[in-house]
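Hey, resending since the last one bounced:
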Amino acid sequence: MIRAFGWAPGDNLPSARWEGFLPEIPQGGWVWIDMSGESPTAIAELCSSFDIPKSFIDEALAEASLPMIEERREMIYVVLNAFRSTPEGRLVPSEVDFFIGPDFAISVHEGDIVSTTTVQERFDQGIGLTVPTPSGLLAQLAMVGSRRLPALIDRLEGQLDLLEELAMAADARALNEVYALRRDVIVMRRVLVPQRQIYDELAEPGGHPLVDEESRREFDRVADYQSQVLESLETARSLLGSVLETYRGAVADRTNEIIRVLTVFSAILLPLTLISGVFGMNFADIPLADHEYGFWITVGVMALLAGGLWYYFGRRRFVGTPRLSELPRAVGLGIYQVGTAPIRAVAEGIGSTIRLVTGNADEPGDGAG
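The structure tokens again:
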């Protein structure tokens, strides 16, 4: 889809609008053309009509790239990234290409971008551009996109409270969610750091002649705002690291508890096994073998020995938690974890292979800012 807006000199609201065809630039004014989901041929033809260098067009049509800026004497080419949320709630960057000339601004992207849609909706509400120039349009789009980033970070931080509870309970879901959120943070940082550098460059005094002083001030505000966002991301990353350490500590404590219980049971059963082994030997003369109550005497001695050992381990604080009523569950959990360890290892190996093949092995909205 192609949407176009034309500004007459001195106006902050569009004086003309087009959709679906090449517009005419107002006399002495400028035009913004927003291309969403157009074919490479249509993009190349329209950009060529504005004398945009072929190298810029090829870059815009290439695979998604990180934010960058290239400047020519009468043109600025900027690649920014917006953020989209997948159905699973993960963040993925989406490339947005901007071409800035003396009398035009062209934006190229796939699908709807919140910043461009928001600015266009403001036109319908009678809210114009703060700086009615092509560079001022880019600055406003960047600010609109940047103002959405705190909402994404708030959503991320809101998930940390639930993750802390899961981590304290050694719930395996916490581990998966932490890694997913860390990937989101890494994706955002990988985009925002170079984008902030781009805004810093556009805000430099005495920079490119197409960027007027009012636009420079707007870019400076965007750069400051994104610096604050990056600080919030650093805080979120530190919190995720703390949650991960909490989970690992809880898992280690639970594992130690299970091993301790299993060890105590083994220590108690070892002498009992020895006694039953001795009395199970094939000799003719075994003590108590012919006694009327020999079996019960032996069982009683074994019970007293087991009780004494349990009392001893309790006094030495080897046992005490979980309580006696919880011991069967703890022992069962330990046996279950030991038995399923090989299966989990194979499953993790298969999952790693799938992520590697599909290209999702990296450690893990709209942000045209």
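Residues 253-358 form one domain.

Sorry for the duplicate.
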